[in-house]
Hints:
By secondary structure, this protein is α/β, with parallel strands linked by helices.
Amino acid sequence: MPDSPSTADLDLRLVRYFTVVAAHQRFGRAAEELHLTQPSLSRQIRRLERQLGARLLDRTPQGSRLTEAGSAFLPRARELLRAAAQATTEARAAARPRRITIGWTADLFVTPAVRQLRRRHPDCEIGTQHLDWRQPREALLDRRVDAVVSRLPLAADGLDVTVLYAEPRVLAVALDHRLAGKESVALDDIADEPLPRVADPAWDAYWRIDPRPDGRPAPDGPLVHAAEDKIELVASGQAVAIVPAGARGLRPDVTTVRLDGVAPGHVVVAVRADDRNRLVADFRDLARRHLVGAEQGRQH
Length: 300
């Protein structure tokens, strides 16, 4: 029995061949996918087995099946290939960043910072993608986007989150609501007004201010899944809603009132904490300089 190899001794090409055979359970089909002859693929798998010092596959007239060692090795083999691919991607991005995708959520704009980034890097591919309010963290970790401009709350595990500016929270009501037209209201004024709920606990608590500062729970309203559903409830007089002052998707039959005694919300730019792409760092810097709230924008 040969000595057990270190991870560095493994040929990743052979590891990939093994995962393809395991997926097809037939050497012939795996060989077709890999553009190899079946005898050549068999030799490569035997070479891997010699490196590991264990038989990975039992060959039968009906095909091939994993041995106990093969079943143990398969998930680790897939992890190894994924890690190698990620390491290659990150190394190339750090050495020669050529591409970035920037996400943003409702009622927020990234155009001023994106325009400056394109001027700074005219040879790079710089794309944008609109995201639902529930998607920023998932989209970053899945690498669908490389930076996101969004609102808090946002779970920061694995992310680097930078606050861009504060944004007041206001109360959205129907035009014929008893509070419409007031200069401002306080939480006590809506102590018994139902507020639409969302499934995300952190988002729900933040935008309904639940519990209230005195410990009382916020009144429950219907569960909604989209901002349009929330505004429909407000317009029909079934609920009121706390929304960001920058919300631009309100209907003509809905108005907003200043909400006193409530801390402002925050607009942020979030990136992956381990991202070394120079384009990402540049966009974050440009976002801090060029993306401002409506009130700050009027002062520029």
